[in-house]
Write a structure and sequence with these properties.
The complex is a heterodimer of chains A (about 210) and B (about 230).
Chain A (H helix, E strand, L loop, with lengths): L3 H11 L7 H14 L2 H23 L2 H18 L10 H19 L9 H4 L7 H5 L1 H18 L3 H12 L4 H8 L3 H22 L1
Chain B lengths: L7 H9 L4 H13 L1 H19 L9 H5 L5 H7 L18 E4 L2 E4 L2 H5 L8 E2 L4 E5 L7 E7 L8 E3 L3 E11 L4 E3 L3 E4 L14 E7 L3 E3 L11 H4 L2
Antiparallel strand pairs in B: 1-2, 3-4, 4-5, 5-10, 6-11, 7-8, 7-9, 7-10
The chains are: A mainly alpha (about 210), B alpha+beta (about 230).
Chain lengths: ~210, ~230
């Protein structure tokens, strides 16, 4: 049985769209990632390979090097399609960043200089753990939320329910009272007790 | 709030990989720290990608480009491989993202953390300044400079261009105050005297020529400027 997304993907694939349509290209990449679809990859290849070659020929002025860049880029697209994150940019942007990295390394490869930077260090486009360090600065809030979630687990069930309805679902205290069929005063005291308990838990961990 | 950013040209050439290695590291580190420039980088990447891949027809001059893919040999060769989803580069998981100096710990932005192994030994300079080279190849020089609080760098100009990025802390010069993430780019004509006041400051500096000291006794330092940046 096919999942809904797969059916959706297939439908996109069947349509007459070209890979220059971002949604279509992203759908093709998803098919390569999930089921190594040769049909999807062939379509991507026939669109991107000549364009990559045009780019690489301009950059290197050398047919063989240009073909090497095409091959290495498209090999990564085939092997690493699962690393494409549609929310971070389009398929063609992702493929450009792969080609950019390969070009960067090609330009340094022949010099055999010690200490030369590698493209992966500058732009970890194909690192499996791409998220971990990149988002460090943005991640603090997430970490805090995760920690808070753990602390919430430690609250008595009645208090936890109230906290979740107010702070996760964004309900007002009156709405919570109505939803749970309890007096508003009870909601207020449970909230107060829960926050007090959370404060203690956070401080005891410091 | 970051006040000083790389200019658009820097960001564009960061995206295409056409800056010197030292500047690529500097701009990359700034981008790690700066949501605004992250967004600009994404826009530039998308723009370049559209320019490269957006055209419906491959340009005429490259019609030959199409022919080279006619027999499908490359396509078949690629698809003969079985994709592996394993994290092959587990080295990335063990990244060191801290810098320890004089008992102080500094958190390194991702670009620097990935290049942690390139950071050399710390050396004490005059006064309360320390420096450590970052070995990245190329002709220009990338250096960490740490200034303890209340440190003044002698007035100097640069024969080449200097880019400075505040990794942590704050410093001042004649014109402004620079804090975490601020990126300053100076060319040879600018004289300046950086100093720290109540806080210490860790910066990353890229130079494409040695510093040239211009004032009083510090002129005597010039022969030794290679000590700063070699």
């Amino acid at each position: 049985m096919q999942t809904a997304t797969e059916t959706q993907l297939k439908r996109k694939l069947m349509s007459s769209a070209q890979p220059d349509d971002p949604d279509h290209a992203a759908a093709l990449l998803a098919l390569v990632a999930t089921e190594q679809s040769r049909q999807a990859f062939s379509e991507l290849f026939s669109y991107f390979a000549p364009r990559l070659k045009a780019y690489a020929t301009r950059q290197f002025g050398n047919e063989q090097t240009a073909m090497d860049l095409v091959q290495e880029t498209m090999t990564n697209v085939w092997n690493k399609a699962h690393l494409f994150k549609p929310d971070r940019g389009s398929a063609s942007t992702w493929i450009f960043t792969i080609a950019r990295n390969i070009r960067f390394d090609f330009l340094r490869k022949n010099k055999h200089r010690q200490h030369d930077l590698s493209a992966d260090e500058l732009w970890p486009v194909l690192a499996e753990q791409n998220d971990s360090l990149d988002d460090d600065y943005a991640l603090d809030d997430d970490l805090l939320m995760q920690q808070l979630a753990t602390y919430c687990e430690l609250l008595p069930k009645a208090q936890r329910t109230v906290i979740e309805l107010i702070y996760v679902e964004g309900k007002s205290q009156q709405e919570v009272a109505d939803a749970l069929g309890i007096p508003l005063g009870t909601v207020k005291s449970r909230t107060r007790l829960a926050l007090q308990k959370l404060r203690e838990l956070i401080h005891s961990d410091d | 709030m970051i006040k000083f950013h790389p200019n658009e040209e820097h960001l564009f050439h960061y995206v295409t990989g056409d800056l010197s290695p030292a500047l690529l590291m500097m701009v990359g580190t700034h981008v790690d720290m700066c949501p605004r420039c992250q967004e600009q980088v994404r826009d530039i990447e998308a723009m370049v990608a559209t320019k490269l891949f957006g055209q419906t027809q491959v340009p005429q001059d490259f019609s030959a480009a199409n022919d080279s893919f006619d027999n499908d040999a490359m396509l078949q060769q690629i698809m003969a491989q079985t994709p592996t989803h394993k994290a092959s580069d587990s080295a990335h998981n063990a990244l060191v993202d801290e810098l320890v100096l004089e008992g102080k710990r500094f958190k390194l932005p991702a670009t620097l953390a990935r290049s942690h192994h390139r950071i050399g030994e710390w050396h004490k300079l005059i006064g309360h300044m320390w420096r450590a080279p970052v070995q990245i190849g190329g002709d220009d020089v990338l250096t960490f400079i740490y200034m303890d609080k209340g440190t003044k760098v002698p007035e100097h100009t640069h024969k080449g261009r200097e880019a400075t990025l505040v990794v942590n802390g704050v410093f001042n010069d004649e014109t402004a105050e620079y804090r975490d993430g601020d990126f300053v780019f100076l060319d040879g004509s600018v004289k300046h005297t950086p100093e720290t006041r109540d806080e210490d400051c860790l910066t990353l500096a890229a130079l494409d020529a040695p510093m040239h000291f211009t004032s009083g006794l510090s002129r005597l330092l010039n022969p030794f400027s290679s000590l700063f940046f070699k």
